[in-house]
Amino acid sequence: MAEQQAQRRSSAVFKRLIERSEQSAYIEIPFTMPEHVEEVYVRYEVEPHGVEDSKAVIDLGIRDAARVRGWSGGARKEFRIGLIKATPGYLPGPLAPGEWAVLHNAYKVPEEGCTVKVEIDYAHKTPRWLKGDLHTHSIHSDGTYSLQENAAIMESLGCDFIAMTDHNTISQNVAYPRETSILMIPGTEFTTNFGHSNFLGAIDPMDDFRVTDLSDVREIFRVARERGAKIVLNHPHCDYCPWEWDFGLDYDGVEIWNGPWTDRNGRALAWWQEQLAAGNHVVAVGGSDVHRPDRYVKHAMPCVWVWAEEKTVQGVLGGVERGHVVITYAPDGPFAQMSCGDYGIGDTVPSGQSSREVAVQLEGLLAGDVIRFYSERGMEQEISAVSDGELRLTISGEDRLFIRTEIWRYFEQADRMLMAALTNPIYFNASM
Q1: Domains defined along the chain, listed by start
Q2: 54 CB-contact burial (10 Å; exposed 0-12 / middle 13-18 / buried 19+)
Q3: What's the pLDDT tens digit per position in 343-359?
Q4: Angstrom distance (rounded) from CA 432 to CA 110
Q5: How far, in Å, are 136, 189, 309, 420 from residue 323 at the CA level?
Q6: pLDDT of 217-248, one tens digit each?
Q7: pTM assigned to the model
């Protein structure tokens, strides 16, 4: 399953004998930080020598090549440092390859010394599917969830990230909880009387949300882009707040799937298919748009899966920008992967590649699920799953602009077939 894809890890173990004569000295245990590390985890234990009641007090910290990156004294036996988060007392940030050292203060050493054992685990940057929600609200605008509650719910769902997109405000971006495994993506829902859009990845993407005409919207988009935001047009065919500004604006994706699958999402899907058939590479994303406890609108429903180089804001949003996105109705919904040689979802197969066979791997299917494949010519093929589980097949992309996959499922609550998963396309350049 996509969620079971393992991150590559490695480890190292060091032992250091500390003599009584070294009491009160600062001791370094040097190690080499490998390349492309996303998180480092350090733990240690102390074995006193001599009589049974001998006690050793050895403090803990770490440095990189430039500075001390953290110190916890005798308060901790372990810590983590990641690219954007770290154990309290330690600084997150780049994990530059090269010379590092675990730091110890030999505060109290028994007469016969002690041995310190240090274990270091490295989580390497590994391209993998990360899942989360790109459209949520909180008490920082018109939602009832705190940021802590949002993060806790996403953790309970086994998700990796959440975008905090409160309406026309940025206070949520400077108040997010640090004590969570969830990657908190800064965001703002630029909310106007004629359409909404999410600015993702920028803490402060705009100074003023008030607009009166299209030229104002263009300027706000320009500033948001200049400040590093990725831009998504939200629920463009909603009954109540559709996108009525120009679709020719500069954006990175369109929210094809907003909340539970309804007719508004069907209209967005049809519009997206038209864009793809016209040769436009439009990235489709989704978001729950959750505001408060609700019977139908829930966190990560739909769930956005992003093939990311690393678990960082840049890693997730970079994957979105490249169209490496699959959307499922829930975190545990069915999943579809596609590849054509070395190219995957969101990629363009170059004209020089002779094979246009697309390998499709479907996971988490239920008997009766309907799988549909689309190109610019419309639906190319439809099959039904005859049993639960996985299904592997191929479909030709020869003389096609793209191939994409949908999975439809009967939901008893709605008493109808609804979208359960959809992929962004694999694109094809014209064959030589």
Answers
A1: 6-124 (2.60.120.380), 128-428 (3.20.20.140)
A2: middle
A3: 999 999 999 898 999 99
A4: 76
A5: 21, 21, 13, 19
A6: 999 999 999 999 999 999 999 999 999 999 99
A7: 0.94
